[in-house]
Prior knowledge:
30 helices; 64% helix; mainly alpha; two-stranded antiparallel ribbon
Amino acid sequence: MMDVTNGIISEECRRSLDERNRGEHSRFLETVERGDAETVESLLKTGTIDVNRSLSRGYIHFNALHLAALQDDYKMIQVLQHYGAKPLAKIPISTNIDEDILQSRSRVDLCRAHASPAYILFYSDDPIRTVFNLCCELKEVSDRKGIRNTCRETFEHLIDKCRNLPCKMLDYCFTSNEVDILLRGKISTSEDDTCSYRHQEGKIIYRTVKMALHAEQKEFISHNYCQTLLQRKWLQDQPSWSKNASKWSPVYYLYAFFVLGVFQLPLGLAYMFTPMCNLWRFFTSPKSKFLMHAFSHSFFLAYILLYDMTVPHIPNAKERTEVTLLSMFVIIWGLGLFIQKVTDASRTGFLARFADFVNVLDLLTTLTLVTVFTARCFWSDSISTLTSVFLGSFSAFAVVISGIRFMQNFFLTEFIGPMLMHFANMFRDVLRFLLIFAFVCSAFVFGMHHLYNDASDDTAFAEVESALAALMGTVFGNTLGTSALAIDLKINTTSIDEVKKSSAFFSSMGFLLYSAFCLLCVIVLVNLFIAIMSDTYARLQEAVDIEWKFKRATMWMHYFGAPTLAPPLNLLSFIPWFIEWCISNNKACHCYTHDSIQRVKCHSQTDGKLNSLNYDHLMKILVNRFLKDVDATLIKYTDVIEPENGVTKDRSCEYDNVVFVIEESGV
């Protein structure tokens, strides 16, 4: 019996009640851990259990939801959510090397709970966005200095676990319309405007795909549903005959070469002054943009080659004028390419764009070529000979890099694209090998030079440059004989026998050092490099299809929103923008007045039927389908109606997911 005096419970009774309450909660958590959902629900119905109370176990605090999420128990999480279980705490991002192991264990357990598909489905209104954000958070945590070299594999395993959920959500899409709405994502408030849609209808906005690319969700991007929709948009507005049979491929190649290549400039000029004409739909399609930009880059390289072929044959001033004119073409094209790269960086974000060193190198290469040809064209008489030689030598490297960079266009071809993925991924192995080889080779170069420097001027190791050339030649099979390593010393002594012995010892030391180099570099390092590249190739071969499709989708998305005009016409891109602005602000041509909006009808992009399925409604449907497949008794949204033939009874309409038909003549 409790000792109550003046309405105050004694300290002993308070401790007794707390101990009994703690025991009840401990048994409750044990029941949750066993997965007995019925018993847990009966305990929660009594009202004596705090569903959010945490207890310590192994110095780590757990609550019921945490334990259920660690076991990925769908039924248990549904029961706990129904009785008011609060979401898990946020993952702490900040880490340091001196943190306690207990804190690290707590973070790992919390991340495991957050990565539970059951927890994500019941506690998130948008599971796909939640998974993408969670993967980014886990990647950020794993890259921290205190974790990167200790338990990074644990977080990478959790990231791989999270990647399965978005792919399964795609599997539960039954129609192309559902996949299209899922990939387009949730429309933002700033985009929910009928008037702005008129200016954005030429651009394909796939918000979910953008998030997946940012989070490096390669399995999601390479999913056949996602690839099918992206490829359909990639081929949008292309000639219909080019899509039907492979027999039209040669005709399409000729069409692309002449229309989008040879006649790109006159057609581009015509487009600039009539940008809103329907005749230019083929010109503004994503694939046409890619082909025009690729042809533009190839023309730039061709002009440089033509310049190099023309410059050696300029004996008089008349031909020098022609060379200057050719230089102007290179400068204008180079400026267009430079503006294009800056524009791409402004669209994707400068930090994100130039975080990749390849993009920085590409920008510097284009800027270098423009600078060199500008100096040759306008300041050739005022610059010194040494500066001219330096610019010419430096531009040679820029031309090589620009030519190699052109190969990125072949990533879109199924014939060469996967092989280029191997080439790009092995580049890191090459850099690591070259770094190790440079240190080892430098050590032997200085050692051999130190040995032979004072002996004679006739050996290959008398100079540092010749020593480096001799050892590099050895790596590629041009080994040195014993005669090249032998030397006759000239010592200030009258003993011929002493001179012979000293020369023999000197030559033996040289042979010993050279043999050590052959053993270490030629046999060990080179074969190690071959083994590493073979291992990289075998490892990538298993996932080369996923890697290539991810790269291809990245390039597709780039051209979905890329400007239409390719260099150098992009220098005049303000002309079509100004014409569109004038037309859109002309009241006589304005399509979306208040009266005309009342006559807008929403039609599905797939079959033309009345359809108002939006992203939020679709996400609820997919979650219910997922849960029903796990357990027929599970359901999260009870007020959601399954679509009939892709049509729902929800009347909400997102303008980004529909096309508009205006019931007004002349519009």
